[in-house]
Amino acid sequence: MPSAKKTWAEKMKAKPPHHVILEKDFAGIPKGSKLHISSPLEIAAELKAIPAGSTMSIQAFRHRLAEKNKCDATCPVSTSIFLRVVAEYSWEEFNRSNSTQNISPFWRVLESSSPMAKKLNFDAAWIDLQRELEKQNA
Question: 108-111: long-range contacts (C-beta < 8 A, 24 or more apart)?
Answer without folding.
Answer: 108/47, 108/50, 108/54, 108/55, 108/56, 108/134, 109/47, 109/50, 109/55, 109/56, 109/57, 109/58, 109/61, 109/83, 110/58, 110/83
